[in-house]
Backbone:
């Protein structure tokens, strides 16, 4: 009987350790272990290797975590090599001594016992810093996993986690609020994996982004093909664009169109010249691209975007001039275009298609440039359309989307307009393949 009893007593620590490991619930996410989170209660566990419970600070004892209930507990995860950790010790000492009846600071270390113990003994001798400390810890580090130190876990009087912070939150005002159980507002620490791209973490503070560029290759399911505008939340000024599931032909075309029209020049996709080796990739491969600049650089958004694309995309785009085939939209002696000299005439603007004939384009209360856009995008047309009508008023016009230039001109003629084939000197955007760095070095 005595032999059985001795065996069970020897086995107890191992059984207790096994029970504790199975008692600690750790939530896992794609970015790693989360552990006990803010708002959750701290489990009743035994903390091993606790020192500082006596005045000498030499003893090592196991302690139930509930022994500290009724006080505000700050778990201070630290290491002897961590300068910010050590820098905070004097403040911790001041707070612990001033609020000893309501606060319990517990230092938590998982370095070799000898190293951490000698370090704290030296600090105690030189600076009078006497803390309750946990050495060679495994339990608390598993309950509150973290990537960086200093790491502080604030636990309220009732045993619930109030906050998980860095050293910047160690302020007396917040300590008093936390001890009173009211009105505390912490900036909680983010558990961001630095090995992953910053934007892949849900914890990354996206609201504070000032400038960034992001480019990925391949279609992303769940994202629509298109573009989104990024505006300053404070002023509404445009500071960026995002393009999703988009090819570089469309992307460069958008940038070129905005840049040239800002100079008062018309520009369209038909003024893009790709001189590279993979036209199918240029027009067909999907990419996702986002570019944002600080608000004070918003006026240079698109020039900077072009520079960014020319640096990091597979292509380089630049503007030049060439004499090229085109269609000139012009007036001639004949019927007049119906002009709308006031937007108050009750005519709705924008393209409209006859409900009985989907091939009929009806443009009401629009600029001539809108008509030019539609003419240029007719399926049969392969060249740019140049506006030489001289019309500045808004127009009302209806024509059929037909299969060739002759039939379109038949519709335009009733408005005194026509499309004339010509050769004109015009701005074009030339796109070449990016020269690989390996070639540049050779």
Residues:
């Amino acid at each position: 009987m005595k032999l059985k009893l001795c065996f069970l007593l020897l086995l107890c620590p191992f059984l207790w350790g096994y029970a504790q490991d199975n008692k600690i619930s750790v939530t896992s996410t794609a970015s790693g272990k989360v552990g006990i989170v803010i708002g959750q209660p701290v489990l009743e566990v035994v903390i091993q290797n606790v020192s500082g419970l006596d005045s000498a600070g030499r003893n090592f004892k196991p302690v139930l975590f509930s022994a500290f209930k009724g006080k505000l507990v700050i778990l201070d995860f630290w290491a002897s090599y961590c300068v910010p950790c050590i820098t905070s010790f004097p403040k911790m000492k001041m707070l612990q001594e001033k609020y000893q009846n309501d606060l319990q600071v517990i230092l938590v270390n998982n370095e070799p016992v000898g190293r951490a113990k000698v370090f704290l003994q030296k600090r105690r001798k030189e600076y009078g810093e006497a803390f309750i400390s946990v050495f060679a810890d495994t339990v608390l580090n598993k309950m509150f996993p973290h990537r960086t130190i200093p790491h502080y876990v604030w636990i309220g009087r009732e045993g619930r986690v109030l906050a998980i912070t860095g050293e910047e939150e160690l302020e007396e005002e917040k300590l008093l609020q936390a001890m009173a159980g009211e009105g505390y507002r912490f900036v909680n620490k983010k558990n961001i994996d630095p090995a992953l791209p910053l934007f892949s973490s849900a914890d990354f503070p996206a609201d504070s982004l000032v400038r960034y560029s992001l480019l990925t290759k391949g279609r992303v399911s769940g994202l629509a093909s298109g573009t989104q505008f990024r505006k300053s939340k404070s002023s509404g000024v445009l500071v960026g664009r995002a393009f999703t599931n988009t090819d570089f032909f469309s992307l460069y075309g958008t940038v070129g169109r905005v840049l040239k029209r800002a100079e008062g020049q018309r520009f369209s996709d038909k003024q893009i010249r790709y001189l590279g080796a993979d036209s199918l990739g240029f027009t067909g491969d999907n990419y996702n691209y986002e570019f944002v600049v600080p608000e004070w650089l918003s006026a240079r958004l698109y020039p900077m975007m072009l520079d960014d694309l020319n640096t990091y995309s597979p292509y380089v785009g630049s503007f030049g001039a060439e004499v090229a085939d085109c269609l000139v939209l012009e007036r001639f002696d004949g019927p007049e275009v119906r002009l709308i000299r006031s937007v108050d005439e009750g005519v709705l603007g924008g393209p409209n298609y006859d409900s009985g004939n989907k091939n009929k384009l009806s443009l009401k209360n629009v600029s001539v440039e809108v008509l030019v856009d539609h003419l240029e995008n007719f399926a049969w047309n392969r060249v740019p359309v140049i506006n030489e009508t001289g019309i500045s008023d808004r127009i009302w016009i209806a024509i059929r989307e037909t299969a060739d230039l002759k039939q379109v001109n038949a519709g335009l003629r009733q408005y005194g307009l026509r499309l004339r084939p010509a050769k004109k000197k015009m701005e074009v955007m030339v796109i070449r393949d990016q020269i690989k760095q390996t070639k540049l070095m050779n």
